[in-house]
Amino acid sequence: MSLDKLKRIYKKAEQDLTKLKDLAQLNNVKAHYLGKQGLLKDFLKDLSKLSNDEKKIFGKEVNAIKNSLEEKFQNKKSDLETKLEAAKLASEKIDITLPGKKNRPGSLHPLSIVENEIVNALKSLGFSVASGPEIESDYYNFEALNFPKNHPARDMQDTFFVDEQTVLRTHTSPVQVRCMEKNDPPLRIIVPGRVYRNDADATHSPVFHQVEGLCVDADINFGDLKGTLEAFIKMIFGSSVKTRFRPSFFPFTEPSAELDIMGKNGWMEILGCGMVDPNVFRAVIEKRQESCSESPYDPEKISGFAFGLGVERVAMLLHGIDDLRAFYENDTRFISQFG
Ligand code: PHE
Q1: Residue 230 confidence (pLDDT) above 90
Q2: Centre of ligand 1 from the C-alpha of residue 120, in Å
Q3: Residue 163: Cβ-neighbour burial (10 angstroms; 0-12, 13-18, 19+)
Q4: Whose CA is nearest to atom 10 of ligand 1?
Q5: In this structure, what are the phi and psi dihedrals at residue 9, rounded to the nearest 5 degrees?
Q6: Which residues have CB under 8 Å from 37's CB, separation 6+?
Q7: Which of 41, 150, 172, 328 is deepest in the core (most CB within 10 A)?
């Protein structure tokens, strides 16, 4: 052990200090010189072997070097910390001139909006909302609605069968029968709901939406049907809308008609309607197990009209949309235009 050696260590430490790049390196190097098992400690251990005079000189030197190094490491540490902080600030800089991210609130689907408009218009005319199952028995979907056993609508091509006696309802009309079985006339109901048909192109979807209407009372006639539907259609499309009733056929109405509206591509059918066929009342009577003469649905004493409206058709006409598949793709660029 010599003063020379001590000076060399000090020099080496000073050199090492200049090369330090981060705090981890600094801690390692500092421990190497000043730590519990560091080079300076080794010197102090050997101090006891020296004479008192030598101890004085040596001890002083070692301490001076120790203090100096400690100060230098401390300064270096502050240096590194300042640089680190500056680098961090530079990398986390926020450009406050960039445009912010907008919150885009959701909105009702265009079909829901149109369905709500339809339902609200009909409510204002005195109808109240009813509902029924989407998985329906053959009886309510066809039989009670006076479909003959071999009617083409029962064909596999149109109807999704769950089993031989069960279908996905092809229209909301079965709810007419279900409501009449449970409620006495006068009856004024509407039924918004999903229906299913095995059909798909630009104007047909295998799942679509209808709003059924049924009005039953004494002395309801075709004039009531026309007046009600015309008033309703004007509420939806405005008073200058061009409409026409076309004679048609449905097994559960007689006479029957279809209502067309003039759109940008010509006439478009939007609803079927007619006077409730007496056979539908008879099916209700039979189910309620009442004799024909006492039943509140005796076709000799009451009459009614019914209609079924396609929600997609109305929405297409209202918004000038040619392809109804746009309603189901849920491209937000399309659906956000309606909210
Ligand atoms: N249910 C018929 C359809 O889906 C529409 C309709 C309802 C016709 C009520 C007459 C009366 O096409």
Answers
A1: yes
A2: 20
A3: exposed
A4: 273
A5: -60, -45
A6: 31
A7: 172
Tens digit of each residue's pLDDT (9 = 90 or more) over 135-194: 999 999 999 999 988 888 777 678 999 999 999 999 999 999 999 999 999 999 999 999
Atom of ligand 1 nearest to the CA of 272: 8
Q: What is the mean pLDDT of the chain?
A: 91
DSSP state at residue 196: E
Question: Region 256-277: what's the mean pLDDT?
Answer: 93
Average pLDDT over residues 58-75: 87
Q: What angle do CA 194, 210, 326 make, to 5 degrees?
A: 75
* H-state helical runs in the chain: 3-19, 23-34, 39-45, 52-91, 110-124, 138-141, 174-182, 222-237, 278-288, 311-319, 326-329, 332-335
The answer to which of 35-44, 88-97, 207-216 has the lowest mean pLDDT is: 35-44
Taking the centre of ligand 1 as the mean of its atom positions, its distance from the CA of residue 174, in whole angstroms, is: 10
Report how far ligand 1's centroid is from the alpha carbon of 171 (Å). 7
Residue with tokens 């912010």: 100
